[in-house]
Design a protein that fits this description.
- This protein is α/β, with parallel strands linked by helices.
- The chain has one domain: 3-Layer(aba) Sandwich (Rossmann fold), CATH 3.40.50.
- The chain is 47% helix and 15% strand.
- It is built from eight helices and seven strands, in the order E-H-E-H-E-H-E-H-E-H-E-H-H-H-E.
- The two termini are 34 Å apart.
- Bound molecules: NADP nicotinamide-adenine-dinucleotide phosphate.
- NADP nicotinamide-adenine-dinucleotide phosphate is lined by residues 10-11, 13-17, 35-38, 62-64, 89-93, 113, 117, 141, 143, 186, 188-189, 191-194.
Length: 250
Amino acid sequence: MLTGKVAIITGAGTGIGKEVAKLFGKNHASVVLNYRSSEKQANEVKEEIEKMGSKAITVKADISNYDDCKNLVQTTVKEFGHVDILINNSGMGLTRDTILDITNEEYHRLMTINVDGTYYMTTLVLEQMEKQKTGGSIVSISSSAVAQPSSGNGVYAMSKAAIELLMRSVAQNHGEHGIRCNIVAPGPTETNMVNEYFSEEKRKRVTKEIPLRRFGDPKETAQAVLFFASDMSSYVTGQKIHVDGGRTIR
Ligand SMILES: NC(=O)c1ccc[n+]([C@@H]2O[C@H](COP(=O)([O-])OP(=O)(O)OC[C@H]3O[C@@H](n4cnc5c(N)ncnc54)[C@H](OP(=O)(O)O)[C@@H]3O)[C@@H](O)[C@H]2O)c1
């Protein structure tokens, strides 16, 4: 489904990003695996993709740093000549009992990664796509927290809402150049992030709120990302899919 396409995936060494990278490799994309600290894992994903017969490189970048983002995009163009797909997957989670338990330092750290980082990557790739004049697809990983905010996840939900709005505005303004922007909003999904924020008790309570009665597998999120990244969604832009077992039905 992605033959001839070059895809940058942020945070591709772990969790959802890792499964997206492997699925893209399986679908014959050339994959640029960004990592910040998970170098070993990113290299393992690279090897797996190469075994599938697709090309992959790893690039270290802290997406909250503009120069790192610039280098990530420039390295991609130098290596592969173009960028067709961007997956804004990297993100920081933050859940406390209430918003009053969140420090200003935590607030700023989260916003620089989730909002600034997504903004930097989106604008840099958009600029490159506009130059190429061959269209493109940008997909950002949001969260079901936008549809179901609570005081404790308010800062996280706010950052993801900002990402959604950025995607919709870019979709509105760059569609005429064949550039599509869409959003995948996972519910609780079995990755490090969930393990960090869900106690056994919370896990049991939340599972009862999910119509499918289980947490998601990151492979299931990756399938929705592939839909938006590929021509399967060629007439879809500015839209969101919840991959949450139905938790946001009500
Ligand atoms: N799991 C869930 O239940 C869930 C639900 C809704 C939304 N999400 C979203 O899904 C996305 C992926 O999270 P995940 O669940 O797969 O958890 P994860 O395994 O903890 O992945 C987070 C990824 O973000 C990367 N990252 C964080 N800060 C970064 C930075 N400054 N620069 C570059 N990369 C950075 C990490 O890279 P390194 O490891 O290399 O540092 C890591 O690969 C996030 O945006 C998250 O908000 C997750």
